[in-house]
Amino acid sequence: MKLRSLAFAAAVSLAALLLPAPSSSAAAAIPSCPGGSICFYSGKDYGGQSWEWTSRSGYRDMPNYLHDKVSSFVASTDACFYNWQPKERRTVFNGDHRRDYRGDFGGRIDAVAANC
């Protein structure tokens, strides 16, 4: 009986060593964004201040707190992101999302519109 208990304890210990530990730095879940909209965030991982652009609103300049400062976004529609100096455009598709976008085009985005 002792041998079985010892073998079981050894198997449990071995399994604990081989299985990965749960990560404490799990990535933020992608938040929902209403259909026909793009949700922009000032913080990475969908944090900070947010702003919702809708495709029905047409062309819009980014609010001051997001102008050249979009850190993350979730797209529930197709759209176009604009930078004016130098002139650049980025097509975004329904389902696109970025949790850390500021080091990319999010650090240059000036406006959003339904079409490029």
Question: What is the element layout, followed by pairings?
Answer:
Elements: H1 2-18, E1 37-43, E2 47-54, E3 60-61, E4 72-75, E5 79-84, E6 87-92, E7 97-98, E8 111-113
Antiparallel strand pairs: 1-2, 1-4, 3-8, 4-7, 5-6, 5-8
Q: Can you tell me about this structure?
A:
The structure is a single chain. Helix content is 15%, strand content 33%. The protein is of the alpha+beta class and 116 residues long. The chain has a single domain (34-116), classed as Crystallins (Gamma-B Crystallin, domain 1), CATH 2.60.20.10. The strands form two sheets. A four-stranded antiparallel sheet has the order 2-1-4-7, with no helix packed on it. A four-stranded antiparallel sheet has the order 3-8-5-6, with no helix packed on it. The model is unreliable at 1-25 (pLDDT under 50).
Output the keywords.
single chain; 116 residues; alpha+beta; four-stranded antiparallel beta sheet
Strand order within the widest sheet? 2-1-4-7
Helix and strand composition category: alpha+beta
- The total of beta strands comes to 8
Head-to-tail CA distance between termini: 74 Å
Q: State the CATH topology.
A: Gamma-B Crystallin, domain 1
Radius of gyration: 22 Å
* Biggest pleated sheet: 4 strands, antiparallel
Strand fraction:
25-35%
Number of domains: 1
Q: Can you tell me the CATH superfamily?
A: Crystallins
